[in-house]
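Data card: per-record layout.
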Amino acid sequence: MKTYLVPGAAGFIGANFTKYMLKKYEDIKIVILDKLTYAGNLGTIKDEIKDDRVEFVKGDIKNRELVDNIFYRNNIDYVVNFAAESHVDRSIENPQIFLETNILGTQNLLDVAKAHWMLGKDEGGYPIYKDGVKYLQVSTDEVYGSLSKDYEEAIDLLLEDEEVKQVVKDRVNLKTYGDNFFTEETPIDPRSPYSSSKASADMIVMAYAETYKMPVNITRCSNNYGPYHFPEKLIPLIIKNILSGKKLPVYGDGKNVRDWLYVEDHAQAIDMVVNNGRLGEVYNVGGFNEEQNINIVKLTIDTIAKIMKEEPEYSKVLKTDLENINYDLIIFVKDRLGHDMRYAIDPTKIATELGWYPETNFEDGIEKTIRWYLDNQEWVEEVASGDYQKYYKQMYEN
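The structure for this 398-residue chain is written out next.
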């Protein structure tokens, strides 16, 4: 049986990864370590923590004694680290907490894992580790900085690599807004306190790989979307506001471009890298799903309006009249400081080495996401009100 330590598993991507792994594998154990900050919602994983294969620990990844104790009590095979402060706007307001959690927290996890996995030293003085252990750092494409947006309107994406063509053969209508993409060889060039803290964490991970020969991987993903996303992020915020008839704030002119990844596809990629990724390697995780923010907002409006018209039973979650669901809800607000223009990932490496490519087209994924939010309004209301904190008290403090 393999045992995973998953810091940050009460957050959006970590929770979806945990759900994915428990469905896929019978004979595993997952130890969740989460501080339950504003974006860590125990209600998201309330079914999972009832599973005998799951242990939940409330705490901080910077706490050496706590992480040490987890390793003492469990034969940890893999650390998959999602724990991070991750909202760019919050990092602009308070950079320090991002540096503390994302850099020092990562270093603490690495140091404890190294101590527990180390069996001795080789003739050169380098550590020798247990077989089959690995530390995986979940990172972001934002560490690469910003790409140029070369086209005002998306053009057809022409793929040249034959292996990639085979992997993506079921995808149609691939588009791009630029000539360049982030690859694993793209120099790190972060632009915000958040991305700088994640880039620093990545560099610490690679330093442990080089200095201590520690078995590590890094995955760098594009923007995720899907179920259980905290409602201050773009897509869940837009859905929530549309249903309430509230205005939809869009930064600047809305023409910044992001590469979108359905969260379950991301979970699958992480699983594949944990099991088959070459040690010491970085893998970009994305899938040629570029779109302008303003088009995301319009697509979400159109999709919700269509569902409401065709399936009137959903009208019970509406807090506004159906005729109000239109583009008049959009308002353009002052642009974010240092707002990156375009992100776009080239997934050739993970596609050719591991055979991974996202299975979910964006139009399908956005409808699945909207339907999940429509069907799970209780979760949305709990998160929005802060009531999800009650789950911790009910489960662990009574």
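Known properties of this structure: Residues 30 and 324 are 45 Å apart (CA to CA). The chain is about 40% helix and 20% strand.

See the next section for split statistics.
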